[in-house]
Specification:
260 residues, alpha+beta, Sortase, Chain: A, 8 strands, 27% helix
Length: 260
């Protein structure tokens, strides 16, 4: 009799867990859909329009992909707007804000809606003009592949050099467009040296050494760090929620177009 009661209790507990997980999954998917709609609207309404953001091509004739970003409109929606991130390899294209306090945009979308999808953001210590020695953009590892949800493909694929086909990231600010080339990525933990504040040459060299020791991606042999180019880090969660594991991508600034 006691065994039957325990068995019934165990079954009931399992059913409660299944129902809870199903409800959580439904609510998550509902929030993801709302966030996707918001960002799709932002992309449609604030890129691809005529713009005055033009710049002379570089000596080899190269110029940046002109997304036609409406900076004034985006700033009117959110004064914390600082840039637009475009990562062609993964078709990642989102506005970026700067947080005013720690984790402000972890569960808040660009237009201020409370949503687990959050927003891409730089921390309070990063340079809003992306002219620091090390700037960091954070984004959620979304299960539906939105935000930074596609980045985990690099840690899972056996062909770790696949991204060499298009290793570039573009950051659009009102004053300039920056092109970065990916040179490293790896799994790390919260608070590791991957998030170093870098303000001096010695700190830069130590930071670069840490990256070289930890990367699972072969750093391009022609990548030149003698002039200490600005490093951009993209960071997202890795593995189970609450594990403290993070996946980071490091890219070096290789081209700048100043815009009027």
């Amino acid at each position: 009799m006691k065994f039957k009661i325990l068995r019934i209790v165990a079954i009931l507990i399992c059913l409660v867990v299944i129902v809870y997980e199903a409800i959580s999954l439904y609510n998550d998917n509902k929030e993801y859909a709302i966030a996707d709609t918001e960002y799709e609207r932002l992309i449609n309404n604030n890129t691809g329009v005529s713009t005055t953001q033009t710049a002379a091509p570089s000596e080899d004739g190269e110029t940046f992909p002109n997304l036609g970003i409406s900076y004034s409109t985006l700033e009117a929606i959110n004064p914390d707007f600082v840039s637009w991130l475009y990562f062609p390899y993964f078709d990642i294209s989102y506005p970026v804000v700067q947080e005013n306090e720690i984790d402000e945009y972890i569960k808040k979308t660009f237009d201020g809606t409370r949503n687990n999808a959050g927003c891409l953001f730089i921390d309070v210590l990063s340079n809003p003009d992306f002219c620091g020695m090390h700037d960091i953009i954070f984004g959620h590892n979304m299960r539906n592949g939105s935000m930074f949800g596609k980045l985990k493909q690099l840690s899972q694929t056996e062909d770790r050099d696949a991204i060499k086909s298009n290793p570039f990231i573009y950051v659009y600010t009102q004053k300039a467009v920056y092109k970065y080339e990916i040179f490293a990525y790896y799994v790390t933990t919260v608070g590791s040296s991957a998030y170093s504040v870098v303000t001096t040459d010695d700190e830069y060299d130590d930071f670069l050494g840490y990256i070289q020791r930890n990367t699972i991606f072969q750093i391009p042999k022609d990548m030149d760090f003698t002039e200490r180019p600005s490093i951009l880090t993209l960071s997202t969660c890795s593995g189970q929620s609450g594990s403290g594991r993070r996946f980071v991508i490091h890219a070096a600034k290789v081209q700048t177009w100043e815009t009027p």
